[in-house]
């Protein structure tokens, strides 16, 4: 059997499964899987994302990116000596969420990681499409806010040190450049490889795929034989991010490794970007981060349901977590 254009693996001489332009490497299946695991471990160490004894909650969507993150983190448990559990948020989107949920649960089973599922409709009686219609905002904006709220809430209730997000370097480069163009400099600070939590009500965030390309996450799940959701969310909209992505892709095409260098320089200078000033208070209803007296989740749910739901949701999430008796540890 011949590999990529008849090339042989740079490590072992077997037929190559892929060529990585940014690393100038032909790799066979086994050495590609090892290489990505090594990239994740190197980024975790370089940016000090995980300390021995850390408790990490991985957000898993059922997509290739978070599945790559969960699989690679699960392989590093013993070596880096941390605890890992997973959380899936079921958004209730027709033709998408039920498949996402079953794939996320299956990937967690394969990785041997306990998975909590938080179903939005069980929390507030509405799914994302209905909630977005009632608040008259674009679905992705409502969905992003709900996911951020629930991830932080679950992280706080589970007492973890950080929530791990499956953002890969292509998406992060787009978000960072978009925020730069719009001069939302405080938001750039939130997009580094690691953000610290504080005071027990804001949980830290880590991005183990900070230096992993999207193309490599797709190949990783394919070569590892892991199921993943290939259909895109029907509510997905591209906006200006599509043009920024095309620009960054052309830079990468002309200069392989450009995006890695860009994100590394952002990580080196992240402290120079202004500190986000938002969300430093505790919501007087649910205790979660808030710009004012009441958090945006409580305000939004009060507007559409006549009652702020933050505290109810917190109790329900606490109940789900209490049923997770232990997490897998290294
Ligand atoms: Fe949510 Fe938008 Fe992503 Fe769909 S595309 S899961 S609505 S953020
Ligand atoms: Zn090889
Ligand atoms: Zn609240």
Task: Characterize the structure shown.
The chain has 330 residues and is an alpha/beta fold. The chain has 13 helices and 11 strands. Strands 3, 4, 5, 6, 7, 8 and 11 form a 7-stranded mixed sheet that branches. Strands 1-2 form a two-stranded antiparallel ribbon. It has a two-stranded antiparallel sheet with strand order 9-10. A hairpin with an 8-residue loop joins β7 and β8. It is globular, with a radius of gyration of 20 Å. Residues 326-330 have low confidence and may be disordered. Bound molecules: iron/sulfur cluster and zinc ion (2 copies). One zinc ion (ZN) is lined by residues 9, 11-12, 14, 27-28, 30-31.
Q: What are the salient characteristics of this protein?
A:
Rossmann fold, 7-stranded mixed beta sheet, two-stranded antiparallel ribbon, 11 strands, 12% strand, binds iron/sulfur cluster, binds zinc ion
């Amino acid at each position: 059997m011949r590999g990529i254009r008849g090339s042989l693996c740079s490590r072992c001489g077997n037929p190559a499964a892929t060529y990585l332009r940014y690393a100038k490497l032909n790799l066979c299946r086994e050495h590609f899987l090892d290489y990505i695991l090594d990239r994740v471990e190197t980024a975790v160490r370089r940016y000090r994302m995980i300390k021995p004894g850390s408790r990490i909650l991985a957000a898993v969507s059922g997509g290739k990116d978070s599945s790559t993150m969960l699989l690679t983190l699960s392989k590093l448990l013993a070596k880096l000596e941390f605890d890992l559990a997973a959380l899936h948020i079921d958004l209730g989107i027709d033709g998408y969420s039920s498949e996402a949920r079953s794939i996320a649960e299956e990937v967690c089973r394969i990785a041997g990681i306990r998975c909590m599922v938080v179903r939005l409709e069980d929390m507030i009686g509405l799914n994302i499409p209905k909630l977005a219609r009632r608040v008259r905002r674009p679905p992705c904006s409502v969905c992003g806010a709900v996911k951020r709220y629930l991830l932080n809430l679950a992280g706080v209730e589970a007492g973890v040190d950080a929530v791990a997000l499956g953002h890969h370097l292509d998406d992060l480069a787009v978000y960072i450049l978009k925020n730069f163009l719009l001069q939302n400099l405080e938001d750039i600070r939130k997009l580094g490889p690691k953000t610290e939590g504080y005071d027990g009500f804001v949980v830290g965030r880590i991005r183990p795929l900070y230096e992993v390309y999207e193309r490599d996450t797709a190949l990783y799940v394919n070569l590892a034989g892991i199921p993943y959701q290939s259909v895109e969310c029907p509510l997905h909209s591209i906006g200006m991010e599509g043009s920024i992505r095309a620009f960054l892709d052309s830079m990468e095409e002309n200069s392989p490794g450009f995006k890695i260098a860009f994100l590394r320089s952002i990580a080196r200078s992240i402290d120079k970007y202004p500190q986000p000033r938002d969300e430093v208070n505790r919501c007087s209803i649910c205790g979660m981060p808030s710009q004012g007296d009441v958090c945006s989740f409580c305000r939004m749910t009060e507007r559409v349901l006549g009652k702020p739901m933050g505290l109810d949701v917190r109790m329900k999430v606490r109940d789900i977590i209490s049923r997770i008796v232990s997490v897998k540890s290294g």
